[in-house]
Each structure stands twice: as structure tokens, then as C-alpha cells.
From TrEMBL:
Homodimer. The active site is at E110 (proton donor). Residues 46-183, 202-318 form the CMP/dCMP-type deaminase domain. One of its GO terms (molecular function) is cytidine deaminase activity. Belongs to the cytidine and deoxycytidylate deaminase family. It comes from Cylindrospermopsis raciborskii CENA302. GO terms for cellular component: cytosol. The keyword Glycosyltransferase does not apply. Signal peptide: none annotated. Binds 1 zinc ion. This is Cytidine deaminase. It comes from the Bacteria. Zn(2+) binds at H108, C135, C138. Keywords: Metal-binding, Zinc.
Length: 318
């Protein structure tokens, strides 16, 4: 889709919030909890309906050159306090596909919105709004979240013949009976929980340090392959991504996918990927994020050579 498509989608949301929404999206696809609360009050609506109304806007961020199937998602972060259940910051997400790469490298909107929230500091989600029931891959990905059993719900828009605000609300186990997750492998907690691995790498380079920060907050409880990617654009902006491991292994998300979807959702819809520098920092274990990161980079920015920096435990831990 194009900027025209974004404007068309914005035109479909309630008129009283269109101008604010346009201004916010010019910076990033995140709506702060205070703005969300003011919109709900102004519109006389509820958080779930607002999330459903924003789905077409999120879908304009989709980059789907192969399927041409535009999907968006809206994630609701945790409330500011126990007395504010149902309120929180909204994070947009959208599908991504990559020409020249295997379809298994695709990013789904549910993953995108979750990563957008996680990289903005959220430690869990209350709800996720989507156009259709999630695929099995996304159900498994979402089940890794630390807060998945704490009243997390999926809001699924009803069919197109019904009003825009019509949706169903169900907890994830409704879509994933007899699930397999972190607890089955003896793990407490899960994806999005606050962690710091106290890694270091010998560099003062700003892009390397950004990738190191991402690696320090990555989630890799099964392999300990803590990894982060940092991408720098021609304007000097740096976008990071963290490795997000999954108990099912093949539902894991590479730090490069994480960085690309974060970059996509935090620039104006359909802005070009003008990457001029890319760094991967990881702890070297039995697996590596290097091959997949280089493969992505060859498709997105073939003139950019990946810089690789192994990380080690901080000397303070030795």
C-alpha cells in the first residue's frame, strides 16, 4: 500500500481523532495510553472497539509483495496500574514478506505488533486485535508470552458483512487447545519479561552498542544464543531487534526479522528501507543468527555488509 492507502484508512476512523492519528503516525505506529484514554472518552466507546477500528490503518503498513494480502494487528500493552485494566498503550503491527527469501522468513502482523510493544518496553500484553483468527504459527508464538495466562485475549474482527466494530473476544487457549510452551520445558516466565544478560563486546561504536543492548534484552532461554541486531538508516536513526526464542523452536523470531518489523512500524507507512549499516551481536553457541541475518540483508540492502560482533559475559560475572 501507499501513503494514499494510509490516508484512505485514516479517513474511515472517527473524524474527531483523524488529525491526531495522522500526526502520531508520522513519528511511529504507537498510541500512548493517555491519548488512548482521551479518545475513548471523546468517542464514548471502549478499548476493544477502538482497536478494531484501527485495524485497517495498521494494515497499510503491510509489505506483502508476494501474497498481496494486507493484514494489520493492534496490541494493547499492560495497564499503568491494577485499577486501569482495559487501558494502555496501543502498538500497531503488520505482515511483512521478503522477495528472494523463503516464505518461512515472513513476519505476521501478530508477531509484528508484539515485537513493537516489546521493543518499546512493554513486559506483556492485555489483548491483541486482528482481522482473522491467527494461524497456528502465531498461536504458538503468542503462547510464549509471560502474560499469556493473565487474562490475555484475542479480539477477532467479524466477517466483512457485519459492522466494522463487530468482533469476538476469546482467550488464547480457545485457539490453542492442549498447548505446548515454556512450562513444558521447565521454564518459568516467558517472552517479554524483563531480562538483562550482562553481556559485553569491545567496541564504542554506536551501532554495535545498540545491537549489544538488544542482545542483552533478548529472549533465548533454550539455546542461550542471546542476539541483537541494529540497523542504521541514512538519517542516522538506529532501529534494533532482539532474538525471540520459542519452545517449539521453529516459531522463534530472528533478531533481523525483529529489527525490520520494528523499523517498518516506526517510520511513516511504506517508507523505504534505506539501510546503510547493520550489526549483529550474539553469544556464540550451537546455533547462530549470522546466516539468516546476512540472507535478509542481501535482499533488503545488498550493498551493505553485515558487521558481526561476538558477545561474552561481562567481566563482572566472571
Amino acid at each position: 500500500m501507499t501513503h494514499v492507502a494510509l490516508e484512505q484508512a485514516i479517513a474511515k476512523v472517527p473524524r474527531s481523532i483523524q488529525s491526531e492519528l495522522r500526526t502520531i503516525l508520522a513519528q511511529h505506529a504507537v498510541i500512548d495510553s493517555s491519548v488512548v484514554a482521551s479518545w475513548i472518552d471523546r468517542l464514548g466507546t471502549n478499548i476493544s472497539t477502538l482497536m478494531i477500528q484501527l485495524l485497517p490503518v495498521a494494515a497499510t503498513y503491510a509489505r506483502v509483495p508476494i501474497s498481496q494480502f494486507y493484514v494489520g494487528a493492534i496490541a494493547l500493552g499492560k495497564p499503568q496500574s491494577k485499577n486501569q485494566l482495559g487501558s494502555g498503550t496501543l502498538y500497531f503491527g503488520a505482515d511483512m514478506e521478503f522477495v528472494g527469501q523463503a516464505l518461512s522468513f515472513s513476519v505476521h502482523a501478530e508477531q509484528s505488533a508484539t515485537i513493537n510493544a516489546w521493543l518499546h518496553g512493554e513486559t506483556g500484553l492485555q489483548a491483541l486485535a486482528i482481522h482473522e483468527a491467527p494461524c497456528g504459527y502465531c498461536r504458538q508464538f503468542l503462547y510464549e508470552m509471560a502474560t499469556v495466562n493473565q487474562n490475555f485475549v484475542l479480539l477477532v474482527k467479524s466477517n466483512e458483512s457485519q459492522p466494522e466494530q463487530t468482533y469476538t473476544s476469546n482467550k488464547l487457549p480457545h485457539f490453542l487447545p492442549e498447548p505446548f510452551g515454556p512450562a513444558d520445558l521447565g521454564l518459568t516466565g516467558g517472552l517479554m519479561q524483563t531480562v538483562f544478560h550482562d553481556l559485553e563486546t569491545y567496541s564504542t561504536d554506536d551501532v554495535v552498542l545498540a545491537a549489544l543492548s538488544a542482545a542483552n534484552q533478548s529472549y533465548a532461554p533454550y539455546t542461550k544464543n542471546f542476539a541483537g541486531v541494529a540497523l542504521k538508516d541514512s538519517h542516522g536513526n538506529i532501529f534494533t531487534g532482539r532474538y525471540a526464542e520459542n519452545a517449539a523452536f521453529n516459531s522463534s523470531m530472528s533478531p533481523m526479522e525483529s529489527a525490520l518489523t520494528f523499523m517498518n512500524m516506526n517510520r511513516y507507512s511504506q517508507s523505504l528501507f534505506d539501510i546503510c549499516d547493520a550489526v549483529l551481536v550474539e553469544v556464540e553457541t550451537g546455533i547462530s543468527q549470522r546466516p539468516v541475518t546476512e540472507a535478509f540483508l542481501s535482499s533488503i540492502a545488498p550493498k551493505v555488509k553485515l558487521r558481526y560482533a561476538p558477545a561474552t559475559p561481562s567481566s563482572n560475572k566472571l
